Amino acid sequence: MAIRSVEAIPLTHTLQDGRSFGGTRGMTDSRSTTLVRIETDDGTVGWGEAFASPRAVAALVEDVFADAVVGLSPSAAESLAERVYTGDIGGYHVGRQAFTQCALTGVETAMWDVRGKQVGEPVHTLLSGQTTDSVVPYASTMYITEWDQDPAEPMEEAKSEGFTAAKIKIGRNLEDDYRRVSVAREILGDDAHLMVDYNGNYTPRQAIKSIQALSEFDLTWVEEPVPPENVSGYREIKRHVDVPLAAGEAHFGRFDFKELIDERLVDIIQPNLGQCGGFSEARFLAKLAATENVLVRPHVWNSGVGTAAALQFAASLPDYPHAPDMAPEPLLFEFDRSENPLRQDILETPFDIDDGILSVPQKPGLGISVDEDRLEEYRI
Ligand SMILES: [Mg+2]
User: Fold this and answer.
1) What is the Å distance from ligand 1's center to 73 Cα?
2) Contacts made by residues 237-243, CB under 8 angstroms, sequence distance 24+
3) Topology of the domain covering 125-373
4) Residues within 5 A (CB) of ion ligand 1
5) Average confidence (pLDDT) over 203-212
6) Is the dihedral of CA 58, 252, 80, 361 positive or negative?
């Protein structure tokens, strides 16, 4: 079986009423991404997501990757990242760069989707040999909004939907950080996992002050307290606080992550399965992380396709160093609660969250079916 075609499908959705929301380092009034659709000569279709500016990354997929991949077996996914790093695909000058990694991810995950369909197994089982039924979803919510939203509102909503864990946006100033975390903790309750995300908006000194001021709230992790490129900042924060640090949504490929892992600058890495280089690369990162006892919890702000890829990847993670079924750390999985029809509406069967548990699709490949008619409504 060989790949016959590669198509990039840029998508966008403008938010209702044009109201922007986001984090400290950027608001958006739309949700956009690019899907990659590959088809093999026996008619099997595979899907992946390249999570970057849609038209630009779509052009990269079609100009650079399509010719390189057409004619290959889907099992060539295993070596695709190496071919990008060495410059065999795309030229070595740009192999490590963000857009190249995003395009690679979309193509590579689509190849894994086809592979899973060929052998009749979900990707997580193909990757790891294990079967995982479910993960614990956490609500990604309490965004910073351009309108004056009461922060209690989205948290009450997440709680009423059954979420038992949540991550919120902070990082505007210390007083606001304290107020927002107080509200979230009060609503969620003392036992719930609560995480905060600064989106890299602080200097190391500000971050240390803020994290110390929040110590009473028993945070499960603190995400991107300083910008992704501020390696010395992570080092400095590590020396001063005793809360797990997380980063990875703005890191691309193995060399970025290796630096975080080798020095244990973070306790949790968060590769995004629309950006990090694909399933093989994500597995590589997970194994690298395990050597330093760094946890892996994917970043997910994607469409239904990227969410499914992240879910399959999360389900493939080992509990190391814990014995099977004796893991004290729940497999927390990011589930965005903001407006994005690309997350659920483009799937024939939306994700199943029930009683604070998210089922891992067990059908072959990514385990989802994309509704191609619905896609047309969002195509750019
Ligand atoms: Mg984040």
Assistant:
1) 35
2) 237/204, 237/207, 237/208, 237/211, 238/264, 238/265, 240/208, 240/212, 241/208, 241/211, 241/212, 242/215, 243/211, 243/214, 243/215, 243/219
3) TIM Barrel (3.20.20)
4) 197, 223
5) 98
6) negative
**Distance from the CA of 42 to the center of ligand 1, in angstroms?**
40
Residues carrying an active site annotation: 299
- CA 249 to ligand 1 center in whole angstroms: 6
pTM of the predicted model as reported, rounded to 2 decimal places? 0.97
| DSSP H/E element including 164 | none
| 3-120 maps to CATH 3.30.390.10 | yes
Distance (angstroms) between ligand 1 centre and the Cα of 221 equals 11
Asked whether the predicted pLDDT for residue 361 surpasses 80, the reply is yes
pLDDT for position 321 = 86
Instruction: Tell the residue number behind the tokens 């993670």, with chain if given.
Output: 317
In this model, does residue 221 exceed pLDDT 80? yes
CA of 305 to the centre of ligand 1 (A): 19
282-318 confidence digits (pLDDT tens): 999 999 999 999 999 999 999 999 999 999 999 999 8
Spans of all domains in the chain: 3-120, 125-373
User: Which pLDDT value is given to residue 291?
Assistant: 95
